[in-house]
Amino acid sequence: MINVLKSVLKHDVYPALGCTEPIAVAYAASIAGKQLSGEITEIRITVDSGVYKNGFAVTIPNTGGERGNLIAGVLGALIQQPELKMELLRSVTEETLRHAKELIRTHMASISCDKSKKKLYIDVSIRAGKETARAIIESSHTNLVRLQLNHKDLLPETEAMPDHTSDEEFRSVLRNSTISDLIDMAQDMDDQDYDYIKRGIDMNLRVSNAGFALKKVSYYVSDLVAKKYIVNDVSSSCEILTTSATDARMGGLNLPVMSSGGSGNQGIVAILVPYFIGSHNDLPEQTIVHSIGVSHLVNSYIKCFTGGLSPLCGCAIAAGVGAAVAIVYQQAGKDMRKITLSVNNLVSDLGGMLCDGAKEGCSFKVASSTNSAIRSAYMALNGHGISQAEGFVGATAEDTIRNLGAISTLGMSMADDTMLEIMIDKASRLTTRKENQQPP
User: Fold this and answer.
1) Counting runs of H as helices and runs of E as strands, what totals does the chain give?
2) Closest by alpha carbon to 245, among 216, 274, 223?
3) What is the pLDDT of residues 339-367, one digit of tens each?
4) Contact indicator for 66, 60 with CB cutoff of 8 Å
5) CA gap 166, 139 in Å, rounded
6) How far apart are CA 94 and CA 82, in angstroms?
7) Backbone phi, then psi, for 2, in 5-degree steps?
8) H-run or E-run covering 266
9) Which pLDDT belongs to residue 206?
10) What residues have CB less than 8 Å from 108, skipping those under 6 apart?
11) pLDDT at site 76
């Protein structure tokens, strides 16, 4: 029998240094690069539109401000330490960074987007003289489904597919669960899962402490509080906590966060919001940890319907919902009426928030998600919320989430392509402008 909580913690909740999409590209490239003995002469990377968009403009850790999937992938190919998985780029050195930049400058490395791929997809082919290696990751960030050396499969099908099959199996069970089921799963967690969730709290608090010094979104929210533009209360304090962690992560600081739903920013919301509210209310540690387990499960549950990399902001419509449900659970237990109201409230508030890729501006979205989760949960705990008579929310939390999934996967099917065209055109114009400004 599949233990869904353990599967979610294994596949969707893990330490990540930097944005998970470019780091997954680096991981795939590292696996392929490790198969080769000679000096790399060519790197070709193909990704789906979601990975392409999410890693397009985000700062890569330990690179001095370099951005994007390509530099991450080339570094991974050079580092060749796939055992580090999503913390791979902690091993960047000045020499590997210089080498990576040279491979890109001389067009020996490139990246392209395959819009036909509808799930997470990363395909890295590397040449070293006469040798070639290829690694493909699919469905989730570390799910290796193919590895080749000189066009020969190194993973027999019976070995290559179990993780992929397990991923699909537990997601099928998760998708067919109810939120009531998810709460039961979290309450039944064992000591190992309990300690792992606590590790995520400590990890994300550490990142939050570091981010405030960057003087970005969290700093200015704090300044607004100091100048009495906004109230110094639970909501603003929690907003400072979560935006500070996001500032650090999107700013490329060399500190890992515990992710949720395969996203570091979602991990910040899913973990720190229920942690902060539970601590503020002096709740027992066990209640807080179980609520974060609920938050992780709900986040991954929603993404079964919206897709792993949705046109909608996962911090809002997945992690935000998970945090709101967790807060209600902390104070009302498995009261499905109030939990449904919290889901409907947040989805009605932030259901249309677009994801335009990972970047420093994600801190603003994390701020909105944090505030909405607290507000939505508070109103639900007091019996107020959006009913099925309004908008696209449903009679149950599960109905609302399914409706949200239909909007994300069907109603917004062209949104990613449109955003990508805008982003690529903008980047091209900025590059041309810089080149024209160079002295003769």
Assistant:
1) 19, 8
2) 216
3) 999 999 999 999 989 988 888 899 999 99
4) yes
5) 11
6) 19
7) -75, 130
8) helix 264-280
9) 97
10) 40, 41, 42, 43
11) 97
Low-confidence winner among 302-316, 331-345, 384-398, 418-432 (lowest mean pLDDT): 418-432
Six token digits for residue 283: 């709740």
- Is the pLDDT score of 157 beyond 90? no
Cβ atoms of 135 and 147 closer than 8 Å: yes
* Sign of the dihedral defined by the CA atoms of residues 53, 59, 62, 65, in that order: positive
For residue 153, the cross-strand partners are 148
User: Residues near 419 by Cβ (< 8 Å), separated by ≥ 6?
Assistant: 53, 311, 354, 356, 357
Pairing of strands 144-149, 131-138: antiparallel
Amino acid residing at 238: C
Quick one: tokens of 367? 């701020």
Q: Tell me the two tokens of residue 70.
A: 């390509």
Is residue 424 pLDDT above 80, yes or no? Answer: no
Q: Give me the domains of the chain, ranges plus CATH numbers.
A: 17-162 (3.30.1330), 177-418 (1.10.4100)
pTM: 0.91
pLDDT in tens, 206-234: 999 999 889 999 999 999 999 999 999 99
The residues near 399 (Cβ < 8 Å, ≥ 6 apart) are 388, 393
DSSP 126: E
Q: Measured between alpha carbons, how far is 308 from 132 in angstroms, rounded to an integer?
A: 30
Per-residue pLDDT band at 236 (split at 50, 70, 90): very high
Cα separation, 129 vs 181, in Å, equals 54
Specify which residues 111 forms β-bridges with: 45
Structure-token match 């490790």, residue found: 34
CA 110, 115, 116: angle at the middle one, nearest 5?
120
The answer to whether residues 108 and 43 touch, using CB atoms and an 8 Å cutoff, is yes
SS3 content of the chain, % helix, strand, coil (to 5): 60, 10, 30
Q: Which two tokens stand for residue 124?
A: 């890295």
Per-residue pLDDT for 158 more than 60? no
